[in-house]
Amino acid sequence: MFDTLFNTEAARRRHREAPFAAERECYLQRRADCGVTRETLQLRSWELLQIARLLDPNVAQGVSIQQLRKMIRQRTSVRPESTAEQRMINIARPWLRFLRWWRAPVVDLPFQNQLDRYVSWMRDERGLSALTVKRWQRHVRIFLQWCVTTDRRLDDLQPNDIDQYFVNEGAQRWCRITVAAIASALRVFLRYAATQGLCDPRLADTIRRPRIYRLEPLPSGPRWVDVRRILARTVTDRPRDVRDRAILMLLSIYGMRSGEVASLRLDQVDWSNRRLRVFRLKRRQPQEYPLLPSVAEALANYVDTVRPRTQHPEVFIGLRSPRCPLTPTGIYHIVSRQFDALGIRVAHRGPHALRHACAARLVADGMTIKEIGDHLGHRSASSTSVYAKVDLAALREVGDFDLGDLQ
User: Domain locations in the chain?
Assistant: First the structure.
């Protein structure tokens, strides 16, 4: 690897003769296989060379963050808590983790075993989606941490303790929808905990979530004219815009969820037959769509000219090292950035806002609730009925819904 990175024999020899040369070369090769550019690898190799000279010979036994900081401060002139120190830590940590030499800090949580079993139960017994498991795990962990902080135990927990949690933690911070989501998550967890003998079996039934009216507000998506402005803004040759345009079209035309876009794989795009196969998260089954010419062009432009060479099967990959598949959170930031740049004011600025805009457009085109639900991948008509409540003024602003001519 050093032979391909450096042009002079003196530079190659300097890297080969320094400590842990084989380990550094193996790591750099793996980064190159993930699509990291030659210039970045050159900079990283010089930084790793300096770090390798700081490490003790018995580093294979494991290095903690405290030990790494101590090495850096004793053997270099960087100031404690400085940007230079943090940069060296950020470079050393992934290398040591790659070699399995990194000793991650262990957080001793008294409830971790119960939480791990609950996560396994949600995933294996209930068959919940990964996104739901992650969300409920976060809600339950925060609640259990609060119990530890306030010296409360599950087996002694009373209804007024849970009321106190919502009062103390949720005051001035949680909206009604957030309170309802947390209440549902805690109710499921406490029912599970009761089956394990961890708490009173009557405790879960004492949790009352606020009533959420499904048809209370209008859908909070942007107008279709604003969606066109967003798409028009990405018609450039910049790599980020090329990638973002393909993502934005999938969200706004097919009404895909952010998780569905993030998990979309290359083998789900049938270029020869012009078909797009999407795995709908809520229905838990694949769904096939015609691959519209404008979407096919955007996807092909991204895959052919921008997408990094990587072993990941997902379509959308980060543009910076490490070249990993985009996450739903990353897709949220892509959409939110477009709303901010154009000054579009809506209640929600994430991918789901474009899904709402897609549904409103289908309503304006006169499609039935059943057809809209099928297009969006809803499990039941009740999920689609919210789009039957539309703003008549907004309907007058939209024209014919022609996917093929969308620019």
Answer: 2-98, 112-206, 224-405
Catalytic residue positions?
A: 257, 282, 352, 355, 378, 387
Q: What does the alpha-carbon distance between residue 186 and residue 121 come to, in Å, rounded to a whole number?
A: 15
The sign of the dihedral angle between the CA atoms of 240, 242, 243, 249 is positive
3-state SS assignment for residue 211: coil
Cα separation values, 178 from 142, 170, 173, 185, 242, Å: 14, 9, 9, 11, 35
Q: Report DSSP state, residue 205.
A: G
pLDDT tens figures, 22-55: 898 888 888 777 767 788 888 888 889 888 888 8
The secondary structure of 236-300 as a DSSP string is SS-HHHHHHHHHHHHHHHS---HHHHHT-BGGGEETTTTEEEEEETTTTEEEEEE--HHHHHHHH
Distance CA 35, CA 312 (A): 11
pLDDT at 5: 87
> What confidence score (pLDDT) does residue 391 get?
45
Could you read off the pLDDT of 201-216 as tens digits, one per residue?
999 999 988 877 655 5
φ, ψ for residue 140, nearest 5 deg: -70, -40
Residue whose pair of structure tokens reads 């030990």 in the numeric block: 67
Beta-bridge partners for 279: 286
Share of the chain above pLDDT 70, in %: 85
Q: Does domain 112-206 have CATH number 1.10.150.130?
A: yes
Question: In this model, does residue 281 exceed pLDDT 80?
Answer: no
CB 326 within 8 A of CB 246: no
Q: Is the pLDDT of residue 159 over 70?
A: yes
Residue 33 region, left (φ>0) first, then alpha (ψ -120 to 50), else beta? alpha
DSSP string covering 64-108? -HHHHHHHHHHHS-PPTT-HHHHHHHHHHHHHHHHTT-B-PPPP-
Alpha helices (H) in 99-209, listed in sequence order = 112-120, 130-149, 159-170, 176-195
* Most distant CA pair in the chain, distance: 75
What is the CATH T-level fold of the domain 224-405, as seen in this structure?
hpI Integrase; Chain A (1.10.443)
DSSP three-state, residue 315 = coil
> Residue 290's CB: how many other CB atoms inside 10 A?
14
For residue 155, how many C-alpha atoms fall within 13 Å in the half-sphere facing its CB? 5
pLDDT at residue 108, rounded to an integer: 62
Strand partners, 265: 314
